[in-house]
């Protein structure tokens, strides 16, 4: 193989590798205070896309925020602006775990009953977070992915802006 042919082969392998990584991972910039003190505004995190396997209790996940203030369990709201976008939250109960008391009203069941299959209970680390305490169970199909690590913190030096960053609350 000539030097040029080898360069083309290496370039193609790198391009395919980057494509695979971009399909499997996202780099997301945290926007908001729902996960204080764990993550602060401006932190960048690496998110493994997909929900298989399901996240474990304690994992931090990125999810599609409920489309209305009534949440996933209630009927669509005709008043007030719809909440759109992504959120970052911590998984506090997985299917089969007891329903936490602080989420029982929003989830429509008594505390201690098992979380049903296909549902999670997620809380922000900040007590005033918009989460399962407000909108109830999170359907697992609303998961974007699981946070695997913090890449940079707000206190790190600024980096060049990239098109692959998405702000989440």
Structural domain tally? 1
User: Which regions are unreliable across 5 or more consecutive residues at pLDDT < 50?
Assistant: 74-84, 160-165
Tally of alpha and pi helices: 3
The helix-strand sequence is HEEEEHEHEEE
Q: Main sheet, how many strands, which sense, barrel?
A: 8 strands, mixed
> Any idea of the CATH topology?
Umud Fragment, subunit A
What CATH architecture do you see? Ribbon
Radius of gyration, whole Å:
19 Å
Specify the overall morphology: elongated
Task: Please outline the helices and strands.
Elements lengths: L2 H22 E6 L13 E6 L10 E5 L21 E8 L10 H4 L11 E5 L8 H4 L2 E2 L3 E10 L12 E4 L1
Fold and architecture overview:
The protein has 169 residues and is an alpha+beta fold. It has one domain (25-168): Umud Fragment, subunit A (Ribbon), CATH 2.10.109. Helices cover 18% and strands 27% of the residues. It is built from three helices and eight strands; from the N terminus they run H-E-E-E-E-H-E-H-E-E-E. It has helices spanning 3-24, 104-107, 132-135; strands spanning 25-30, 44-49, 60-64, 86-93, 119-123, 138-139, 143-152, 165-168. It has an eight-stranded mixed β-sheet with strand order 6-5-4-3-7-2-1-8. The longest helix has 22 residues, at 3-24. The protein starts with a helix and ends with a strand.
Produce a short descriptive summary:
Helices cover 18% and strands 27% of the residues. It is built from three helices and eight strands; from the N terminus they run αββββαβαβββ.
Comma- or semicolon-separated keywords:
single chain, 169 residues, alpha+beta, 8-stranded mixed beta sheet, 3 helices, 8 strands, Peptidase_S26, Pept_S26A_signal_pept_1
């Amino acid at each position: 193989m000539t030097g040029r042919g080898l360069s083309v082969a290496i370039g193609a392998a790198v391009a395919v590798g980057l494509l695979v990584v971009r399909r499997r991972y996202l780099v997301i910039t945290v926007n908001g205070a729902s996960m204080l003190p764990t993550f602060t505004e401006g932190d960048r995190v690496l998110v493994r896309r997909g929900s298989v396997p399901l996240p474990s209790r304690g994992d931090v996940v990125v999810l599609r925020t409920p489309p209305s203030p009534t949440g996933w369990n209630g009927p669509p709201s005709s008043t007030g602006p719809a909440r759109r976008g992504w959120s970052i939250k911590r998984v506090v109960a997985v299917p089969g775990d007891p329903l936490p008391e602080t989420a029982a009203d929003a989830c429509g069941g008594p505390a201690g009953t098992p979380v049903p299959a296909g549902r999670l209970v997620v809380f922000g680390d900040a007590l005033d977070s918009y989460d399962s305490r407000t909108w109830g169970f999170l359907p697992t199909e609303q998961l974007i992915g699981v946070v695997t690590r913090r890449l940079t913190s707000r206190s790190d030096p600024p980096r060049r802006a990239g098109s692959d960053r998405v702000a989440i609350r």
